[in-house]
């Protein structure tokens, strides 16, 4: 076998084994609509996804809360020429720390057909905002402000403006309070338990590193919950 013939055989083999990428405008998966709403102290969602291709197409639905930089992914597929209404039960951190007004972005990635070589472009990008649902069971009221003392109930959010911390009250009793915080120094969501009269120090990374002290202070009644939040030097 000549060198040229051997080169041709190798080249044809490489071409045969390489997935065929479709043109950029080839987007069989189309996200038609989406709703994300509060329910039972967390957020849930529904999304309508259509497939215009003549085969079942599978993909990874990428949902990102742009406000708190939290991602949820789910593997799905839609039959040929069909539309699917998918209910989304977000993971714990995404579901519990998202709130009304947050901006949510949907896009289908890793889009492939059932055939070995059927590779498609990403879907369109669909963006919406979290709305208050009819079955919402949030706490007393969300709070936003500078340093000070905040009265809060379970499932309330506290937005500390100087640091950018978003704090959610998960549970409380006369002995301690359980909190979840986002926009902390190392990213992600932090669980924090503070006993009555005790103080915890946190560093936020929302804009620039900011030290914050959170104190579980006593109320007039043992069941009252007051959190003192102060910027620290």
Describe it for me?
- The chain has 233 residues and is mainly beta.
- It folds into 2 domains: 25-129, Immunoglobulin-like; 143-232, no CATH class.
- 9% of the residues lie in helices and 51% in strands.
- It contains 2 helices and 18 strands.
- It has a 5-stranded mixed sheet.
- The longest helix is centred in the N-terminal third of the chain and has 15 residues, at 3-17.
- The radius of gyration is 24 Å and the shape is elongated.
- The protein starts with a helix and ends with a strand.
- Mean pLDDT is 87; it is low at 18-25.
Topology:
Layout: H1 3-17, E1 20-21, E2 29-39, E3 42-51, E4 57-65, E5 70-78, E6 83-88, H2 92-97, E7 103-113, E8 118-119, E9 126-129, E10 143-145, E11 148-151, E12 157-160, E13 165-172, E14 176-182, E15 189-195, E16 199-204, E17 210-217, E18 226-232
Parallel strand pairs: 1-8, 10-12
Antiparallel strand pairs: 2-3, 3-6, 4-5, 4-7, 7-9, 11-18, 12-13, 13-14, 14-15, 16-17, 17-18
């Amino acid at each position: 076998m000549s060198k040229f013939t051997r080169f041709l055989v190798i080249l044809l083999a490489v071409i045969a084994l390489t997935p065929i990428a479709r043109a950029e405008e080839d987007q069989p998966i189309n996200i038609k609509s989406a709703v994300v709403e509060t329910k039972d102290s967390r957020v849930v969602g529904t999304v309508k996804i259509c497939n215009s291709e003549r085969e079942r197409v599978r993909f990874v639905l990428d949902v990102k809360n742009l406000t708190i930089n939290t991602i949820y992914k789910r593997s799905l597929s839609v039959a040929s020429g069909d539309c699917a209404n998918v209910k989304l039960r977000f993971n714990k951190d995404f579901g519990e720390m998202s709130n009304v007004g947050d901006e949510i972005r949907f896009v289908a990635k890793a889009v492939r057909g059932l055939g070995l070589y059927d590779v498609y472009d990403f879907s369109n990008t669909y963006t919406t905002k979290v709305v208050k649902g009819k079955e919402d069971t949030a706490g007393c009221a969300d709070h936003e402000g500078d340093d000070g003392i905040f009265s809060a109930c379970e499932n309330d959010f506290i937005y500390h403006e100087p640091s950018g911390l978003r704090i959610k009250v998960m549970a409380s009793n006369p002995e301690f309070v359980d909190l979840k915080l986002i926009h902390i120094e190392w990213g992600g969501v932090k669980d924090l338990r503070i006993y009555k009269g005790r103080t915890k120090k946190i560093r936020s990374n929302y804009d620039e590193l900011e030290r914050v002290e959170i104190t579980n202070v006593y109320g007039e009644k043992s069941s009252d919950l007051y959190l003192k939040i102060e910027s620290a030097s």
